[in-house]
Amino acid sequence: MQNEQNYNNELKGKIALVTGGTKGIGKAIADKLTQAGAKVIVVARNHGQKPNPEHHFLAGDISNAQDTEALVKEIVDKFGKVDILINNVGGLNSPGGGYSVLTDEHWEKDLQVNLLSAVRLDRLLLPLMTAQKDGVIIHISSTSGLVPQWEANLVYGVAKSALNTYSKSLSNEVANKGIRVLTVSPGPVKTEGMEAFLNGYANNAGISVEQMTQTMMDKIGGIPMGRMAEPTEVAELVCFLVSPKASYLTGANYLIDGGNIPL
Ligand SMILES: NC(=O)c1ccc[n+]([C@@H]2O[C@H](COP(=O)([O-])OP(=O)(O)OC[C@H]3O[C@@H](n4cnc5c(N)ncnc54)[C@H](OP(=O)(O)O)[C@@H]3O)[C@@H](O)[C@H]2O)c1
């Protein structure tokens, strides 16, 4: 892309962990951090279709406590540290239709994937970061955490909203230990996850994916830029935030939404 920033190997010597780094936004972030010189570990349940040979892939379900503990042990044994943690795993696992169709199981699953996976991983890796008095943690949230869309994604929005508050609290707690914690809230992004969401809803509603996409854009109040983001555009922002260029930034929640949120 024309607007790519040049990081001149600024992340050389850094170890970065990107959860969900095999597809979509996570893959774009992992690629960008690699270009900037970091050694990048990606975690997902499967390899993904176009693995980057420069990424160190580890298999695991990050919404599961046992898998996560085993992953962290493997990372510590192999790499000794994590300087940059990108908590990117998340997504919609519950049906639309509002509160009455949502069971305890739906709530538990989406809270695990969108909130507790990050809380757990932060808790396991922060001691390593605080010991070296250096580290950056990014939480990938969503504009759904700021603007409720109960018809489509009630649990997801609640989980992302909680993630925003948790991220801010954590940033206050660890700022004086040399750790920066930031939130990034994308609007719609063209990823495999978004494609699956649109296909599923279009199927259920008996309309085309194009009609469904338009319905979603209208529902969220329109995107002034008239399109979804590319994953690489989110990756550019994240790469800046974890770089030394952003040394005074912590605690903030960065919208990347083509102008969608009206404030
Ligand atoms: N796309 C959007 O429009 C959009 C908008 C706002 C916010 N976001 C947020 O951005 C993040 C990434 O979204 P995306 O659209 O890029 O997702 P995506 O295309 O569905 O990719 C998700 C990635 O996470 C991995 N993953 C999913 N569940 C996992 C688990 N339990 N354990 C380990 N890995 C897991 C997937 O690999 P496996 O399936 O092989 O595990 C894949 O690598 C999410 O937090 C999402 O909420 C997305």
From TrEMBL:
Belongs to the short-chain dehydrogenases/reductases (SDR) family. The keyword Oxidoreductase applies. NCBIfam families: PRK06523.1. This is Short-chain dehydrogenase/reductase SDR. It holds the Pfam family adh_short_C2. Keywords: Oxidoreductase. SUPFAM superfamilies: NAD(P)-binding Rossmann-fold domains (SSF51735). GO terms for molecular function: oxidoreductase activity, acting on the CH-OH group of donors, NAD or NADP as acceptor. It comes from Mucilaginibacter paludis DSM 18603. The keyword Oxidoreductase applies.
